[in-house]
Amino acid sequence: VMADEAVFSLADLSYVIYEEAADFVNIKLMKCGGITDALKIVKTAQVFRMPTMMGCMVETKLANTAALHVALAQPNFAYSDLDGFSSLKEPGVSGGLSFIKGLNYPPKEGGIGSTPLSSF
């Protein structure tokens, strides 16, 4: 069972762990307060041997790329679902992550690997 749309803070994760309500947790940067808070949640989940997934909502490609960077930097992320940008008419950036045959791939460029489009 995955806690999806249930963990937006460290307190939420603590409750899920205490109640043994889930085996996995889905973390979304936009719902948990950003990178710093996401790292607190994932590191706590790792202590309790609870695998995590990096998820998203309908977001820009830049947001999805940042989320993928966080997920790849933490060994506890077992899965990712970062295709929210594919629902947008314009990605807003050139470069960034790729979504190919259901898998996320990081950009090859340095840094975050994307550049804002002038039209965005």
UniProtKB/TrEMBL annotation:
Keyword Iron carried by entry: no
Database matches in Gene3D superfamilies: Enolase-like C-terminal domain
Signal peptide residues on this chain, from the entry's feature table: none
Keyword Metal-binding on entry: yes
Gene Ontology MF, one: metal ion binding
Organism this protein belongs to: mine drainage metagenome
PANTHER family: O-SUCCINYLBENZOATE SYNTHASE (PTHR48073:SF2), O-SUCCINYLBENZOATE SYNTHASE-RELATED (PTHR48073)
Protein name: Mandelate racemase/muconate lactonizing enzyme
Keywords: Metal-binding
Residue ranges constituting the Enolase C-terminal domain according to the UniProt record: 1-115
InterPro entries (alphabetical): Enolase-like_C_sf, Enolase_C-like
